[in-house]
Write the structure tokens for this entry.
Amino acid sequence: MTSDELTVRGFRPEDAEAVAAAHRAGREHLVMSAEALVWLNDRPSPDGHFRTFVAESDGRVVGAVRCGVVNGTTVTGVGHVNGSVLPEFRRRGAATALLAAAERHLVRHGVTELHTWLDDVPGSLAFAAARGYELGRAAQFGGRDLTLPLPPAPLLPAGVELRPAVEWADDPRPLFLVEADAIRDEPGEVPMDSLEYEEWLRGDWARPDLDLELTVVAVVDGEPAAFTMAQTDGDRYWSAFTACRRQFRGRGLAGLAKLESLRRAAAAGYRHAYTSNDTTNAPMLAVNDRLGYRRCAGERKGIKRLE
């Protein structure tokens, strides 16, 4: 591939299937539907400045990068960037060009520190190191075959109910309060200490791939205490976020919600379940192990200071 054959441009809705294919090429644990990609690029993002850039070769989309400003934190100047290129088009300049386009965009919006997730394989780590990224924390993906039996559901403690999130469709604020409390303890270099309801509605609750029947809420004496969010693509299920309010921890509520969500997903015909956790998050790793998830891939955080 020569530079004349490669074009980097903004995302168009008709690119969605090709971008999704590049995203999951060789990485079936990454669940992202074409519909969700169109939505991500069409939704209002007044503070996030979200953009997707695509690399095109001879009229074919061969890769893409998604980027924006990190919201929900009191730390300013932090951006995120994540991308991928089809395996047969790697090492030909597409990833470098995409990353440069993302960096130019984010610098214009005040980003001084850029965060990315890297496949924990030598080629990906070497690519990032050569472009000024330093390695941060590690995470691991877990996969589970939903056609295999799930653990038996235990008896629910007194006062505990498991209910689908669709019951809060008209007023999801009680679920936002669970996430806003729990996310403060999420492992990461950037504290998520300033999550706002309107941004949560735009960025999480409104996702077209969020399944409110598979998203399960653990309710204690009528109050939402924990939940697990489920996103889907085809026959694949993604555990997007599991949260439990601090005062309700230690009761196994997150595990109960996740098991019920997986049970519902299996009954609905989903065949593959995936999740991701920071490697220091021992409690959630233990929950996933009991549910039958097994490590299928790893990733590393990459961090770069922008001049």
Q: What stands out?
A: The longest strand covers residues 134-145. The mean pLDDT is 96.
